[in-house]
Amino acid sequence: MAGLNPQITNLLIILFFMQASKKIPFDDLRVLNGVRVLYVVSNLIIAGLYLYVQQIINQKKDMTVIKYVEPPPMGSQEEPKSVTTTVHAYDLTQLKSLFKGQLMGVGMMAVMHLYFKYTNPLLIQSIIPLKGALESNLVKVHIFGVPASGDLKRPWKQGGMMGMQSGEIKTDKKSIEEAERSGRGGAKEE
Q1: pTM for the full model?
Q2: Separation between Cα atoms, residue 10 and residue 159, nearest integer Å
Q3: What would the mean pLDDT of 15-31 be, rounded to a whole number?
Q4: Burial (CB count within 10 angstroms: exposed 0-12, middle 13-18, buried 19+), residue 68
Q5: Which among 104, 115, 93 is positioned nearest to 46, based on CA atoms?
Q6: For residues 83 and 69, is the Cβ–Cβ distance under 8 A?
Q7: Confidence of residue 82 (pLDDT cuts 50, 70, 90)
Q8: d(Cα 84, Cα 68) in Å, to the nearest integer?
Q9: What CA–CA distances, in Å, run from 120 to 83, 113, 149, 181?
Q10: How many CA atoms, within 13 angstroms, populate the side-chain half-sphere of residue 127?
Q11: Nearest one of 69, 97, 71, 55 to 174, comparing CA atoms
């Protein structure tokens, strides 16, 4: 499965665990508590991984400047925005968005499990977010040591839900100069 698209492997994992979860006796409190523990441990591993990545980012403190044009939010009438930042600040921003995404997932799972009493998603959500964390660009670059070139060259493509995105991040000189001249340019993040 190493050569498959991560979304395809996620789909296969979901289908497999949906079928497997039908066979798991969630009525047994020991089994249910075991799956709950698995979910909590999975999220603690992800949090630990992200904190470790944050430590590595802060140790490297790469102050290389990156310039790019950020597309406007989907459905917005705004102009693309020119952004000038450092690799250090960019990576911390990306890490912050990963943390937010993880907390949103935990919050949604808490509502689904504690309020609506769904148990099957606990099993799936113990594996998919962990797989996603290990496949994230920050983990690839900072933990696995994959060089930041090609697809891993910053700024990274923003993959939204089901591959939809608001637009492509542009790094060519012409686009950056155009955005800087328009009224939305010159945002500096540090």
Answers
A1: 0.84
A2: 15
A3: 92
A4: buried
A5: 104
A6: yes
A7: confident
A8: 7
A9: 43, 9, 39, 53
A10: 17
A11: 69
The pair of structure tokens assigned to 13 is: 């994992």
Instruction: Give the C-alpha separation, 133 to 130, whole Å.
Output: 5
The residue behind tokens 């907390």 is 103
Cβ atoms < 10 Å from Cβ of 130: 16
- Cα–Cα distances (Å) from 150 to 69, 155, 190, in that order, read 18, 11, 25
User: Could you read off the pLDDT of 100-149 as tens digits, one per residue?
Assistant: 999 999 999 999 999 999 888 899 999 999 999 999 999 999 999 999 98
Q: Give me the torsion for CA of 85, 86, 91, 92, rounded to 10°.
A: -80
